[in-house]
């Protein structure tokens, strides 16, 4: 399994790569790819970091697991590859965007790479998953690794926007320094919970207002 990570992130996360837990994690992931179907493809595990270098991050969206169906996951949370059916949570994200901007986002494909390229870090807490088995790679070390990434952003950057949707993301975001960054929290966009606050949250407009206030280019959602 060949894994490469963008250089600015490598510098920030080098202590993780050098740690004992990451060695165990690497062994587990390598065995998993050899013995079963695992998503995303090996070269896309660090896609969120590779598409959005450390010093280019403006916004962080936290997911939980990669999608576990064929051809869906490509290393960016909530995103799927072009030509793949748009998943329910992303359909609801597009509905909220349509409401906030009075434009029809619902006809788009599910590829959010253009967000990543503008500085939106689309980070799952766990970066791999076994096919058809959600949560199968949780508790193996990925959460420690992604916690370290969030902590580094919180400590070494300022004026970032963190979008924490659902209790899992909110718990993971407890390390964020809210004096330096904008943290927006609401329900998860999944069909089970979107009506509990995600719809009408205004997060996309609020994000761009905050970026503009701090002299940063808004995101073209």
What does this entry show, briefly?
This protein has 221 residues and is of the alpha/beta class. Helix content is 37%, strand content 11%. It has helices at residues 7-17, 20-35, 47-51, 88-101, 113-116, 142-156, 167-172, 203-213, and strands spanning 38-39, 59-63, 120-124, 129-130, 161-165, 182-186.
Shape: globular
- The level of helicity is 25-40%
State the major sheet. Answer: 4 strands, parallel
- Going by helix content, strand content and strand pairing, the class is alpha/beta
User: Low-confidence runs (pLDDT<50, min 5 residues)?
Assistant: none
Strand order of the largest sheet: 3-2-5-6
**Total strand count, please?**
6
Q: What amount of the residues lies in strands?
A: 5-15%
| Average of per-residue pLDDT values | 96
Give helix and strand order, one letter per element, not per position: HHEHEHHEEHEHEH
Distance between the termini: 33 Å
């Amino acid at each position: 399994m060949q894994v490469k990570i963008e250089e600015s992130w490598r510098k920030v996360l080098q202590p993780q790569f050098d740690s004992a837990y990451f060695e165990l994690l690497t062994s587990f992931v390598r065995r998993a790819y050899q013995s079963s179907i695992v998503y995303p493809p090996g070269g896309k595990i660090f896609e969120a970091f590779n598409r959005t270098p450390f010093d280019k991050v403006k916004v962080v969206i936290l997911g939980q697991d990669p999608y576990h169906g064929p051809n869906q996951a490509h290393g960016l949370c909530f995103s799927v590859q072009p030509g793949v059916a748009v998943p329910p949570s992303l359909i609801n994200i597009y509905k909220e965007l349509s409401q906030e901007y009075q434009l029809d986002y619902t006809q788009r494909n599910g590829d959010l790479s253009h967000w990543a390229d503008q500085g939106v870090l689309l980070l799952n807490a766990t970066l791999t998953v076994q096919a058809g088995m959600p949560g199968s790679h949780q508790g193996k070390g990925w959460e420690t690794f992604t916690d370290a990434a969030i902590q580094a952003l919180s400590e070494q950057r300022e004026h970032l926007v963190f979008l924490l949707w659902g209790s899992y993301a909110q718990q993971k975001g407890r390390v964020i320094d809210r004096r330096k960054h904008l943290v927006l929290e609401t329900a998860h966009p999944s069909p089970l919970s979107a009506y509990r606050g995600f719809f009408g949250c205004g997060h996309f407009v609020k994000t761009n207002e905050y970026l503009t206030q701090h002299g940063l280019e808004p995101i073209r959602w």
